[in-house]
Amino acid sequence: MTLLESSPSAPMTWAATEEPEAHAAAEWRLADTDFWAASYLGYFGGTIDKQGGHYFVRDTFARYIGDFSDLTTAKRKLEDHLASLLVEQRDRP
Question: What global pTM score does this model have?
Answer without folding.
Answer: 0.69
